[in-house]
## 1
Amino acid sequence: MPELWELSAEEIARRVRAREVSAAEVLESCLARTSQVEPLIGAYLEIFEGESRARAAEIDRRLAAGEDPGALAGVPVALKDNLSLEGRALTCGSRILAGYLAPYTATAVERLIAAGAVPVGRANMDEFAMGSSCESSAYQPTRNPWDLSRVPGGSSGGPTAAVAAGSVPLAFGSDTGGSIRQPAALCGVVGVKPTYGRVSRYGLVAFASSLDQIGPIARNVRDAALGLQVIAGADPRDATASEEPVGDYLERIEEGIAGQRIGVIREIDVAGLGGEVARNWQASLDRLAAAGAELVEVSVPSIGAAVAVYYVVATSEASANLARFDGVRYGFRSPEADNLADLYFESRGEGFGPEVKRRIMLGTFALSSGYYQAYYGRARGVLERMRRELDAAFGKAGLLVTPTTPSAAFRLGEKVDDPLAMYLSDIFTTPANLAGITATAVPSGAGSDGLPLSLQILGPRFGEAGVFRAARAFERELGWVVAPGFRGAEVGAG
Amino acid sequence: MALTPEDVKKIATLARLRFTPGEEERFAGQLAHVVEYIDQLQEFAGDVPDASAPGVRESEDLSQECLPRERFLANAPASMDGFLLVPEIKGGGGDA
């Protein structure tokens, strides 16, 4: 019989609601698993032991009183360290927010708690969600549960590694250019970037406000759908949260993709990537066809410019959003300054890490007088063109597919000194953020090196139900089990 | 375009960031490399539609309660009598 920590979120909630197990038992199983794997992977910045036990006990009390705590009753969840939970520390993986306590709770987190979920900790991330390896966290690197010498991806590396390692069945991160999907790919789990506006951003620390979305990370597609179901929907506290009805993501999720037209983007040359990624991609296309999908070719001519557009738009917005961290109102203040202007320069200079500084610099440059039109203006224009091309592609095929990443997990340290190489690991994920559409990363098996690879399924705005249906059909066809081997543990654990 | 260490100094001043001389040099190289990559956008000159802002529903302009002062100030690095405390506001600054 599987241990409780091995169960899906859906199964945990079912058993807890049926009072077959208690929320406390589930939590203890997950905390015990966490204490085994955490020394190996370093997924958390803080574990809420006391608070999570109190919350689980409260859920058990409510069940005993005949109440239904909700769709995620007793499900332990990890939260990326940029999601506010009132009274808890919130650092975004940055030294500049050391000592900051969230004064309110994010809408998405509020909805999780209202549905009976039990937040177990703050999970590690690249500083301010800027990075693709989790190495830019000011506090610690996180390691990939499949191979401890490799990165888990980023920026949501902590929550994703936690899910893959079995610490929690479900976690929540944010995705601005691939920050949920890329780590999900590298850790062999499912990650969802919802349509822009599907989830309220209230209480999510802003990186690039026109691109950021909160989304779920899970070991299977049904759990990811359930996780999004709980947090999705309108919110008066976020004007960009859409009032489009949410619908039921699980209702038709098993219906398969027989006859579904799925588009393959002509301009993405996966064969050119060679090796395991190209082989796995071809196998994935064969699986989609075996599941009954009709593969069609579509054209998105400007897609090759996505990373360039992304690194102008995202850094421009970041340079404005991060202006608020000035050593005056909250967070780190440099003790060196004896006047206000120096306080800004010193606090930001000491408080931000190198990747955040690079991006603030790039954004400041793109928005600066004389360069604005050539960079920011041009990038917005290309973005608009890409959005239209993708709309046209969705007219020919209900869904599109690409690999999620151009490679499997790379080694720690491999790309830290080459920012552009790091940025290019987002080459397939950035278009969905730019176009505001939804995309899900679903495991597509492993290469001969045993490292997971991933298929990305993209859907039109608010097309989540269709994407989940296809991802579920693909998952069924593949029969993937998330069972990381912690390669390298025998060396470090002794 | 090429970014010189002087350009980097100027951008750092606009961005209110202090760098060590070593950082300045390293960043100049790295940023130049990224800007060179981003310059591919120039190929789209005259070939892109006007960028439209994403649709945003305007909420009603109503006054609402904001975060209570004491909860806000609980995160402040320094405060006094219900106000934020900052050092001398004159002098200092960047290299500009």
Note: The CA atoms of residues 28 and 53 of chain A lie 8 Å apart.
## 2
Amino acid sequence: MIDAIPRLQDTVVATLPSSYEPRGAGARVTVRPAVVLVWEWQNGGLQLDIDRTTLIGRELRSAIYTVTEVDVNDFLGVVDEPGFAATREITASAADNASLAPPSFAPFVAVLGLLKTFDWQDDFLFDYRTGTAMFGEQSIEFHRPLRVGEVVAIAASISDVCEKQGKSLFDVIEVTFEITGSAEGDRLMSGQQSYILFK
Amino acid sequence: MSEALSKPYFEDLEVGMVLPTMELGPMDRFDYIPIALILRDTNPLHLDRVYARERGLPDVVQQGPLNQAFLYRYFTSWLHHPWDLMATKMRFTANVFPDDVLQCGGEVLDLVEEPGAGGVVNCAVWQRNQDGQTILKGEAKGRVPGR
């Protein structure tokens, strides 16, 4: 069990598993994460039980995404959506004439936008290169259609973390997000996205 | 890829009514390239068959948001206007692989009449592969006009 959220430069206190012979099971030692990772690589099986509940409430960095014609056109080339085209037809007087992206593109905006708001290591205490992560549940409320060409902002925070047991132990991190347009109070989408991090 | 769904009117809907199904596919591995570019996700799990097989999978895995997009396409093509969509809640339960054929379906869970004409319909929605394995399940809510 780690007593504090570790950063690479931090020193952490961990309880050792029974396989760590030099100190014995349950011994409390102070180690740097990099040292622990080397030990794990050399011996295998050292599992640090990271307590991610300390992440609840963390505000993630804000991000922006432009709904480009290229992205929507590429998308429409795969998911045939009758009645939608990515070409913008903006007149001088009415930005509302911009063509709409299909609702099926909305999960892409949410996923893409959210991936820009966090760092797996720093915000989720997770090494994406060696660990396994999956999308969990996603819920979205739609406030208005998404337009091709518009710039959207994504604000997100970690709203819940819970540990669950399936075939193996995993953490579910729930991120609450809001996607807004450029005008004040212009809400596009809001909702939750959960990520499953296997331990 | 699929046939058009007949559009519903609020008065014709009942709780428990089954939505028409839609079949999509077969899924094309070459579609995963533009999707990876859109998502800025170059995870080899979606693009490299050898890499996927080394991890015990039969083939590359279709991107989850693409599975979702097909289920969104299904539900919103049933609505009179796609952006009558109000809310969704979906959970991933299995992977999709190249050449899979997806079937989407749903059932009316709840109906709320709105002042004027029409109302809001909340449906259970699902997506299954050709073996009947559930890929995605959840709920979708949209506005439906009256006659």
Note: The longest strand of chain B covers residues 102-113.
